[in-house]
Each structure stands twice: as structure tokens, then as C-alpha cells.
Amino acid sequence: MVMCKDVVENIIGYIDAELDDKTLEELEKHLDECPECQVFVRTYRKMLELTGKLRERTFVTPEIRERLKQLLKSKLKPN
Amino acid sequence: MIGTVTGQRGKETSPPDLVNTTDEKLIELFISSKDERAFEEIVNRYADKIYRLAFKITRDYYSAEEILQEVFLTLINKIDTFRGESKFSSWLYRVTANAAYMHLRAQKKYENDVSLEDYVPYDENGTLMGRIKAKDWSDKPDKALLSEEAMEIIEKAVNELPEPYRVVFHLRDVEGFSNQEVSEVLGLSVPALKSRLHRARLYLRDKLSDYFYEWSK
Fold first, then answer.
1. What is the DSSP letter of B173?
2. Do B139 and B87 form a contact (C-beta atoms < 8 A)?
3. Pairwise CB contact (< 8 Å): A65 & B73
């Protein structure tokens, strides 16, 4: 019998659509009946969506960029 | 030419003819004709990514900047060690990760070896009953979840992951690398990194649930 634990431990395969048909069918049956697992999957997906947005943030400040530029300029200067 | 690597918040100013050129071609141009514009384009593409990974490993802004500089100096001086056997980006991330771990070793700054291997959200009976639904934040409006304050919370939560989990999560879920690429960069088997990724995601989902639950009170 499928339990919440099975949903949790198969979540990567479930999200990436890598589960075999039988496992998928059993998990989805449990999901249909389990509100806790439904919220677990929804918040898991949302967490991935939000953390993916961190890629768009800029960390290198103009000051860091300027220091890097000066350093590289001196190293790339022809002898 | 490197003098044009400028810009507010990392906006790129490279000449348009190089913007659509592949990394590998840019490296070829740099090696064959010391084309500084090609190098500048690589800097524009990767400075932020290198700095982010270095910070994710060291959690220290000064070290991250030193590593950023070291990596580009390595690129100038030792570009011939890139043999094209893997993607240039994987090679560059591997150089970055190695430099960052060397910094940690040199400074003898090791994090407590916290393991998340036993971290699970379910109880001893394998059920989530009463543990998840009470803190459902999935229907919060995107405007709130994508606000600067919320993004700070998310960043903080990622930074609180223990190092081995944080780096795998960062490369896979933030930078968007494939399992194979993460495996190449960190020298980890795919099953090992999947295991870390799984625990990292469970931990983060819980952390974000706590944060957003408290935040909305």
C-alpha cells in the first residue's frame, strides 16, 4: 500500500516524469486521496520555481567588476 | 578592450558579433589571436556565475572575490589545460569549485559536518498527516513570493543548507545544470548527487514553509 513516505521518496522521479507506469499510477491514486501529499507536491514544485529565480539575481557589484577589470587589463596588456 | 567590461548590475556591453558566439569558439579566438574581445565576452558571461558558486562554497564575500579573480587569471595563464573533452562551462565551474575548496582548506574553515541523510518530513509511520497542510503557502500570490524580501528569504534558506547539499542544489536547481554536468564539476557519482539533491530539496521545502508561514502571520 502506497503511503505519504512513498510520495516523498519518489518525488524527484515524479517531478521529472521518470517513474514507471505502475509506480506512477499508485502514487497518483494516493495523491488523489491525500490532501497532505497534494500540498507537499504543490509546495515542492513552487519551491523549485522560486529557487530557480535566484539565477536571475546579480551578485557581482559594479565595484567588484571594476576591480576585476583592472586586474585583467594589467594581465592582458601586451609585453 | 577589457575596459568595456562595465555596467550597472552586470549588464553586458560586448560587441554584438560575439554575443552569439559559442564559448568554445570564443576560447579558440582567444588562444589563436589573443582576441581580448573574446575574453571580455567570457568574463561577461561567467563573472556572476563564478562568483555565485565561489560564495556558495565558501559563504564568504571576500573569498568569493579572490576566487573570481583567480579563476580568470587561470583562464589567461592555463587555458591550454582546457582540452575540450567536456563543455567549457563545466571545465570553468570545476576550476572554480577546486579553487574554492582550496581556499577553505587554506583557511582551515570547515563547516560542521551536518548530515541531512536522515532528514525526512514524514513520521515514523511514513505519513505526513498534520505536518504539511497547515503551512500551505503554494497559493500565495507570485507578487509576494517574488518580492525582493521573499527572494532574500529564499537565498538565506539555500545558504543555510550544509555545504555538500548547498553546492549540489545550487548547481542543479539554481544554475540549471544537468545531473551529468554536476557530476563532472564536483566529481560525484550521479546517484550520490541525486541523494544529496533529494535531501536538500526536502530541507528547503520545509524551511520555506516555516519562513512563509511565519511571514504571513
1. I
2. no
3. no
- As a whole number, the mean pLDDT across chain A is 92
> Strand, coil or helix: what is B72?
helix
Q: What is the ipTM for the molecules in this complex?
A: 0.90
**Domain residue ranges of chain B, discontinuous segments joined by +:** 2-106, 133-215
| Neighbour tally for B13: CB within 10 Å | 10
Amino acid letter, residue B40: E
CB contact under 8 A, A66 and B158: no
Q: Structurally, what CATH architecture does the domain formed by B133-215 represent?
A: Orthogonal Bundle (1.10)
Cβ atoms < 10 Å from Cβ of B138: 17
Integer Cα distance of B166 and B210 in angstroms: 19
The ranges assigned to domains in chain A are 4-76
Asked if A14 contacts A41 with a C-beta cutoff of 8 angstroms, the reply is yes
Per residue in B154-200, pLDDT (tens digit) is: 999 999 999 899 999 999 999 999 999 999 999 999 999 999 999 99
| Residue B101 cell numbers, joined | 575548496
> Is the CA virtual torsion B163, B167, B168, B173 positive or negative?
positive
Give the pLDDT confidence of B63-83 residue by residue, as tens digits. 999 999 999 999 988 887 787
The amino acid that residue A34 corresponds to is C
Report the top-level CATH class of B2-106. mainly alpha
Residues 181-210 (B) with a CB less than 8 A from some CB of A: 194, 197-198, 201-202, 204-205, 208-209
Q: How many residues does chain A have?
A: 79
Confidence of residue B5 (pLDDT cuts 50, 70, 90): very low
Which of A36, A44, A47 comes nearest B129 by C-beta?
A36
Q: Which of B7, B50, B10, B39 is nearest to A76 (CA)?
A: B39
Radius of gyration of chain B (CA): 20
